[in-house]
Amino acid sequence: MNRLLADSYKVCDDSTTIDPASHLSCDMTVSSPAGWKKLCFKTRAMFEEICRTKSYKPYKFLVKTDDDAIMDPLVENFISSEYEGGNVYFGTTYGPNTSYDPQNNTWFGGWFYGVNTEVIDKICECGLPQCISKMGEDQWFGYTLGQCNIEKRDLVVPEDFVHHKEYSTKRLNIKFTAIR
How many CA atoms within 13 Å lie on the side-chain side of 20? Predict the structure, then answer.
């Protein structure tokens, strides 16, 4: 079984405050504009750095999650069982959205999506398009795959495998809240 999360490589922006001694410390820090509305630029800066350093090479998959997302271990089992090689893009689907992307490319929601490293190789070879005004980072990533003409298999992960801001079972109820 592929262990998507066992050996995770954490990328942070320069506004991240994490105790360096913590197991949550950042493996890579990118300089980018702060703020939620600049997330597309942060994500693009992250991919520029990943492509420049080739830091993704030891891994099979790159998974982008929000820091308040909880992933059920079944996600790993599902992706591993469905992965047949080749180029794969996975997540919980939101697109296409033709207002930003005239090519009508599929894009997956920003709280959880990923690709295998073969796709990252192709993105790095192709080059990264600029963010379009008001485009979300998740839309930008789907747009990037389309602009690079990457033939891929879209693997839709069931939404109940990834919990954003709330996780409830019969024995447990956890809610995440953003405080400004």
Answer: 2
